[in-house]
TrEMBL record:
Protein's name according to its UniProt entry: Transcriptional regulator SutA RNAP-binding domain-containing protein
Lineage: superkingdom: Bacteria
Organism: Marinomonas foliarum
Domain Transcriptional regulator SutA RNAP-binding: 6-39
Lineage, opening ranks: Bacteria, Pseudomonadati, Pseudomonadota, Gammaproteobacteria, Oceanospirillales
Length: 105
């Protein structure tokens, strides 16, 4: 049996019922300013931002790129040329009905 997809309306109703149950059990909702929940001690949490280390020097690999490009543009003599295979062609009469098959090269 296929499980029906939950719609946005179903999700909203479920959340509203959960909030109502929380409030009925004497739960309190704390109001916070927008963006405040992302702050740590009143400042943005920068420990997860990846700019703490100094800039590293890159290793030049121009000779490696040149070797790859050269291999890409040189054709290897080991690959044989593809032989042309005969193709099967259908012959039609004047009314468009098929008559017979013939092989063409």
């Amino acid at each position: 049996m296929i499980k029906p997809k939950t719609t946005k309306r179903d999700t909203r109703e479920e959340l509203e019922s959960l909030v109502d149950q929380f409030i009925k059990r004497n739960g309190t909702i704390q109001q916070v300013n927008m963006g405040e929940s992302g702050l740590v001690d009143g400042k943005y949490n920068t420990s997860h931002i990846g700019f703490n280390e100094p800039k590293q020097d890159r290793t030049p690999l121009n000779h490696v790129v040149a070797a790859i490009q050269q291999r890409k543009h040189t054709k290897s003599p080991t690959t044989p040329a593809a032989k042309k295979r005969p193709k099967k062609k259908i012959i039609y009469d004047d009314f468009g009905d098929p008559i017979r098959w013939v092989w063409e090269e």
